[in-house]
Amino acid sequence: MTKQQLAVRFDRRLAQQFALQFNQDVLRGLTSEPQKWLSAQYFYDEVGSALFEAITALPEYGLTRADSRLLQRHAAEMVRFRPEPLHIIELGSGSGAKTRWLLEAEATRHGTARYTAIDVSAAALEMCRTTLGRIPAVEIETENATYLDGVRVALRNRQPGERVLILFLGSTIGNFPLPDAVQLLIELRGSLQFGDGLLLGTDLMKPIEQLLLAYDDPAGVTAAFNRNLLAHINRELGGKFDLGAFQHDVRFDSEESRIEMHLRSVRPQTVWIEALDRGFRFGAGETIWTESSRKFTMDGVKQLAAASGFEPRMHWTDDEWPFAESLLVAE
Ligand SMILES: C[S@@+](CC[C@H](N)C(=O)[O-])C[C@H]1O[C@@H](n2cnc3c(N)ncnc32)[C@H](O)[C@@H]1O
Question: Cα(171) to centroid of ligand 1, in Å?
């Protein structure tokens, strides 16, 4: 069997695994009582990844621009936390557009930069290759996998004398309930060596009206992104969701300090999903919880680091749109 045939067979196996997990997660989420939910991971098919890119350009959504400003201004300092060459590994890279500043800084320091992008979205990885592949002296690999599986593969051939810097940008950590975020970082820490780094982006608390607008923009791009989750189920699992029968619903939970996105059923309905061979009943006004985005304080970021075996080393914050990049070092 040629290398290309092997790669095709591997891609098929991976696609089958993803499809099975998708089935199981949708079944679990839509039978959950009293609150139905769907994992935010399934926003990101080809359409979802493109819609996410559009969100990052919205005037109401300052998060990505703030993150980008910090990376552009401080990239040289960020990569300098160790003198050794870095293997930069990004969790949920998306298009990787902001990462260029770090790769350029590392390539300037050592003449070359080794980078692995991990993402469940093949379309996002394609964008990432196109965006970052043009930077001279950057060696790019992509892993179409979930976060920890991707890290395990990326770290299989750790080069002697090389240090690892994990990037978890864009406040994606805020999508996890706090105990799950701690668990993810503990497992990540378990795959690293003492002295490796984690650059963690966290969106900080800001006025609630500003947050609500960021997740419910007047042009309706975020609403389309939210509804695309149902369209993704229709395409991949033979779902019969009528997208017009679900409204984009955004709220802020002050106790948990998080934005929640839901999809609200506008009428009583039963939706059939072919791959699961069953229907799911929705009451009028009932919601599916699709995403959470925690808003942090700097103390919260330090506590998160301490609870998962990292020492907070440096923080950079943006004043225009409160956002922090924190360099955490594996203890
Ligand atoms: C909120 S976007 C952030 C993209 C980029 N890091 C940024 O800061 O703009 C989250 C990205 O993580 C990917 N993703 C979501 N869940 C994932 C998972 N469990 N494992 C790997 N990637 C995931 C999505 O496909 C998407 O590209």
Answer: 10
Q: Do residue 324 and residue 222 come from a single domain?
A: no
Q: Is pTM, for the whole model, over 0.90?
A: yes
pLDDT tier for residue 16 given thresholds of 50, 70 and 90: confident
Residue nearest to atom 8 of ligand 1 (CA): 170
For the Cβ of 146 lying below 6 angstroms from any atom of ligand 1, the answer is: yes
- How many domains, the chain? 2
Q: Does 184 share its domain with 230?
A: no
- Listed in sequence order, the DSSP H helices in the chain are 3-30, 46-56, 63-79, 100-110, 122-132, 147-154, 178-190, 208-214, 221-237, 298-307
Question: Residue 92: CB within 6 Å of ligand 1?
Answer: yes
Q: What pLDDT is stored for residue 2 in this prediction?
A: 66
Q: Would you say residue 255 lies in a domain?
A: yes
Please tell me the predicted confidence (pLDDT) of residue 17: 85
C-alpha torsion 114→116→122→124, nearest 10: -80
Is 3 domain-assigned?
no
Q: Is 170 in the pocket of ligand 1 (CB under 6 A)?
A: yes
15 inside domain:
no
CA of 241 to the centre of ligand 1 (A): 24
- My answer on whether 157 and 265 are in the same domain is no
> Could you tell me the CATH number of the domain that includes residue 176?
3.40.50.150
| Domain span at 271 | 24-46+209-294
How many other β-carbons are positioned within 10 Å of the β-carbon of residue 183?
Answer: 14
Tell me the CA–centroid distance for residue 199 and ligand 1, in Å: 15
**For ligand 1, is residue 119 a contact (CB within 6 Å)?**
yes
Nearest CA to ligand 1 atom 17: 41
- Same domain for 194 and 326, yes or no, is yes
Please state the φ and ψ torsions of residue 218, each to the nearest 5 degrees.
Answer: -60, -25
Instruction: Assess whether the C-beta atom of 103 lies below 6 angstroms from ligand 1.
Output: no
CA of 1 to the centre of ligand 1 (A): 33
Phi, psi of 146 (to 5 degrees): -80, 165
Residues 25-66: pLDDT tens digits? 999 999 999 999 999 999 999 999 999 999 999 999 999 999
